[in-house]
Structure formats: structure tokens, C-alpha cells
Amino acid sequence: PTYDNLFGRIEYNSEMGALSTNFQLIRSGALHRANGGYLVLESEKLLEQPFVYGALKRALKSHEIRIENPMSEMTGMGTITLAPQSIPLNVKVVLIGTRETYYLLQELDHDFEKMFRVVVDFDEDVKREPATIRSYARLMKTLADEEGLAPLNRQAVARLVEHSSRLTEDQELLSAHVGELVDLLCEADYKRIRNRDEIINDQHVEMALQAKERRTSRISSKILD
């Protein structure tokens, strides 16, 4: 979510060493395309970009989008030769991030709670039930398809479910951390390719888990020593 990608920009043509523009070079941003609907943003990436968070708050407060050059205030030089008319804004913004980011914004920005009033806290684990396990298996199938991996057999799915319970340290729960699952699936598929098998089985998952344990066992080995 850079400033230009979010609020739009004005492009220029170079003619004889001089920059010129016209109304046909006005480009819309994500807020224009999401106007009347929803815009989902990652909070960490939003805060990494300069000027964006403050400009987003101004747009939501004033209910209008303005295409401006944020650097003009810093440099004191206005390079934009066009001033497009502001557009009425009616959008619902959804910020996704960690709890730490939420508490940080809540503490440092007094407008944050007023502008983002609905808070949803997702749990880090789910109950280990037959219906949940079926959904978990479907999730692994979807992730494998998205990553272009080979399909999994029943034993591989069972081993992943067992590993997910070990991550939560509870036999009655399953971990909701999907990122770790994707990494494990990719490494298990690599083991499958090395063994020249057609599908991912529990042995490939076990080999991937053992390889990960070897790579990250330095501290535990020191403690045992």
C-alpha cells in the first residue's frame, strides 16, 4: 500500500526536457476502486510506507479522496500541475495484523479506536473434532494446489494433524498457524521429488520434520550437553 497505489497519482510526459501532464494521465488508486465497498490492508505494510497512514485517516475523516503529492509539503515545491477534484469516499477499511500492532496503534494514536471500532481477535488454535479434521484436510489440499505440490495421501494428512496438535501442546486442539503448515508441505514435497514418488506420504512429512529439527536443534543440543 504505497501512497500512489492507495490514493492514485498524476503521471507526466517528457517533452523537450520539460514535464507536462493532462487529465488523461490521472491514475486511480485502490481507494477509488474500493469506493462503495471494502478495502483490506495489512497494518504492518501500511505503517511501513511514509505519509500513507496519516493520509488514510484524513480521507476517512473527510469522506473524500484527494490526489496529491505528499512530497510537495516536505520540499516546498509543487510539481503537480493539475488539482483533480476530490471524490466522495464511502468505504469500509479492514486492517489485518498482529495483536502487538493493534495495541501499539491503540496506545500511540488517539484516533485509532474512533476510526476502527470493530475488533476481531482470531484464536490461535481450534478444537480437534471430526469436522475440524475434515476442514483441515481440505485446507491442506487447497494449500498444496496453490503451491503446485503433489497430492497427499491419508497417512500424510494424519501425520500433519498429529504435528499440528503437537504445536499446540494439546491433544484436543489443532494449530491455526497456516504459514508453518505451508513450509512443511513444501519441504515434504521436496523429499517426495528426491525419492521419485508420485504423492506425498507420511514418510515424506516425517523426513521434513526431522530435517527441520536438525536445523533448529543447536540450543537444545547445548542444553543436553
Automatic annotation (TrEMBL):
<feature type="domain" description="LonB AAA+ ATPase LID">
    <location>
        <begin position="151"/>
        <end position="215"/>
    </location>
</feature>
<dbReference type="InterPro" id="IPR041699">
    <property type="entry name" value="AAA_32"/>
</dbReference>
<dbReference type="InterPro" id="IPR027417">
    <property type="entry name" value="P-loop_NTPase"/>
</dbReference>
<dbReference type="Pfam" id="PF20436">
    <property type="entry name" value="LonB_AAA-LID"/>
</dbReference>
<dbReference type="InterPro" id="IPR046843">
    <property type="entry name" value="LonB_AAA-LID"/>
</dbReference>
<protein>
    <submittedName>
        <fullName>AAA family ATPase</fullName>
    </submittedName>
</protein>
<dbReference type="Pfam" id="PF13654">
    <property type="entry name" value="AAA_32"/>
</dbReference>
<feature type="domain" description="Lon protease AAA">
    <location>
        <begin position="1"/>
        <end position="123"/>
    </location>
</feature>
